[in-house]
Amino acid sequence: QVQLVESGGGLVQAGGSLRLSCASSVSLFSVKSMGWYRQAPGKQRELVADITSGGMTNYADSVKGRITISRGNAKNTVYLEMLSLKPEDTAVYYCNAKGLFRDTWGQGTQVTVSS
Length: 115
Fold this sequence. Notes:
Elements: E1 4-7, E2 10-13, E3 18-24, E4 33-39, E5 46-52, E6 57-59, E7 67-71, E8 77-82, E9 91-98, E10 103-105, E11 109-114
Parallel strand pairs: 2-11
Antiparallel strand pairs: 1-3, 3-8, 4-5, 4-9, 5-6, 7-8, 9-10, 9-11
C-alpha cells in the first residue's frame, strides 16, 4: 500500500516562498503520477500540479510560472516549490499518488499566506 506524508507547510508573507515535500513509501516509478492538490475554505479541492513517472508536468493556470513540481534524487519524494505566494494560495495542500489500481492521498499540510 502506498503511503504519503506531506511536510513543509506554514505561515508566510505574500511574495514569500515555500517548499512542500511529499514522501512516498514506494518509488515514484511504481505509480502513474504524483500530484499536489489544494483545498481552500469553502472551495473544492483542485489540482495544483502533477508529474508523471516519465517526468511530464502539468500546472493549474493560476499557479503556472510561480510553482514547480519536481522529483527528488531519491525517487521517493516529490517537491512543490512555491514562489511569489499570494493570499489566495492559502489552503490545505495534499499529495496524491495515482497508482495502477488505486489512488492514495496524504493527510495534508496547511499553507497560509498573509498580506
